[in-house]
Amino acid sequence: MENRFENLSDTEEDVKAFVSACDSMCDAKFLLSERKISDLMRTIATYPRIYDIFKTALKGYNRQAEFLKSQTKVGGRSKLVPPQNQTKLIAYVFCLLLEIDSGKRVLREFLDEYFYHTNPNEEFALFCSALIVPFRDVTEYVYYNGAESYLEDEAVDITLREAVKQLLQEMNSLVGESVVISMDTKQDLFLLARSIESALTPNRIDLVKPLLTGYKNTVMACLIREKLTPYLDRLYRLFQMSDIF
Predict the structure, then answer these.
(1) pLDDT value at position 203?
(2) Within 10 A of 2 (CB to CB), how many other CB atoms are there?
(3) Are 138 and 151 in contact (CB under 8 A)?
(4) Which of 165, 40, 162, 42 lies closest to 93 in space, CA to CA?
(5) I need a labelling partner for 163 at 20 to 30 A (CA). Which of 7, 62, 155, 237 fits?
(6) 103 phi-psi bin (left φ>0, alpha ψ -120 to 50, beta other)
């Protein structure tokens, strides 16, 4: 992994430690996953400036309501659609990690339900890609730009967001119902769809094009391409008309 801290000063030890703990967690196998979660939570508690980011995000946050709201079904399986609001996103992931670390939520059961794969290492990798990576990136962004930099859903045109969300939901339904593609490919497409939707914030909007390209390349390599290509064309037109790319 590249050294993303080469140009940081020694006074930024707290954010270095936080990002390193997230990266270490994302690089870990399932066998070490619970230890890595504990390490990350310990890092958050160790540094006041990092902890204050979550303290601010948690003000007025309804953990149970937000988790219930994030649950959905795709192709008969339970899935999570994390909050798009950045304040709620980091509060959402923080609360999940806290529940796992405290034993209130069993990690393997959670992964089996929402990130199912026959291989627990792949389940954990899907979990980290969907939740820990955006959690890390948003927290790091707020660290450097201040609490007032939290970006609300409306920061990207709400009409565009709703149109993209609707298309992605329809595409997920087609993927979930397909009998001609493997479960691994389905999981890849679900993850890319979630990532595209999550990228619809001003400081992550530049990720939309490479993510959509990755989705398209995955689709072109499998037997569902004829069904999904019209939806992909509509997505590209939406983003072009909105000057996203």
Answers:
(1) 65
(2) 5
(3) no
(4) 40
(5) 62
(6) left
Contact, 130 vs 194, CB < 8 A? yes
**Coil, helix or strand for 182?**
coil
How does pLDDT run across 64-84, given as a tens digit for each residue?
Answer: 999 998 888 777 788 888 887
Q: What global pTM score does this model have?
A: 0.62
Q: Which residue type sits at 79?
A: K
Q: Using DSSP, state whether 73 is helix, strand or coil.
A: strand
Residue 50, Cβ density class (10 Å: 0-12 exposed, 13-18 middle, ≥19 buried): buried
What is each CA distance from 14 to 5, 48, 55, 132, in whole angstroms?
12, 8, 16, 17
DSSP 8-state assignment for residue 180: S
CA dihedral 202, 207, 213, 219 (to 10 degrees): -90
| Contact indicator for 156, 205 with CB cutoff of 8 Å | yes
DSSP state of 105: S
CA-CA-CA-CA torsion for 239, 174, 227, 216, nearest 10 degrees? 50
Q: Which of 62, 176, 188, 191 is nearest to 134 (CA)?
A: 191
Q: How far is CA 146 from CA 84, 131, 149, 185, in A?
A: 19, 22, 6, 39
Residue for token digits 């670390």?
Answer: 101
Q: What angle do CA 64, 82, 137 make, to 5 degrees?
A: 120
**Nearest in space to 72 (alpha carbons), one of 194, 216, 156, 192:** 194
- Measure the CA–CA gap between 183 and 188, rounded to whole angstroms: 9
Length of the chain: 245
Ranges in the chain, pLDDT < 70: 1-11, 147-158, 202-203
In contact, 51 and 58? CB cutoff 8 Å? no
